[in-house]
Model the fold of this input.
Amino acid sequence: MNTVLYLSVNGAVYETRAYSTADINQLVHDRGLHCLTSADRQFDFWFSPSTHSCQRHVNRKATELLLATTEFTPKTVPLLRGCVVVATHDADGELDGLSWQQLDLLARRGQSLSKQQKRALGRHINRAEDRRTDPLTAARCEGSHHVAFSRVRATSRRAWSE
Done:
């Protein structure tokens, strides 16, 4: 059993279980799995880059956690879109579950961003969203397919609050 965090686009964070990267792939809606690792190589952020990012909103909570656990700045942090799963890996690089100590560390780091960092990140996200709603960008995205999000199928143990 591997405890992972599932970060939905609407800001809700859930502890859930994943037994393999195939389970993570299903949680992020099977659109091609990518991973970014925290600066201390302790946390893996699994996400699906969208070919139609014009239709996927920025996952603010996941992006804040990525910022808090890496050496990115609010201006350079990659904006994670859609659903994101945070897990860890073992010495062989295989999927591993988050310990309660790691869950507590993530919660503390998630709250460690300063008001200035949050404002700068908010501006970064707003600029990206403005580009997304730009008439030229919208025209390019007009023919793309809308991504339908399904509910998390894994059992949720508890919801995290902000």
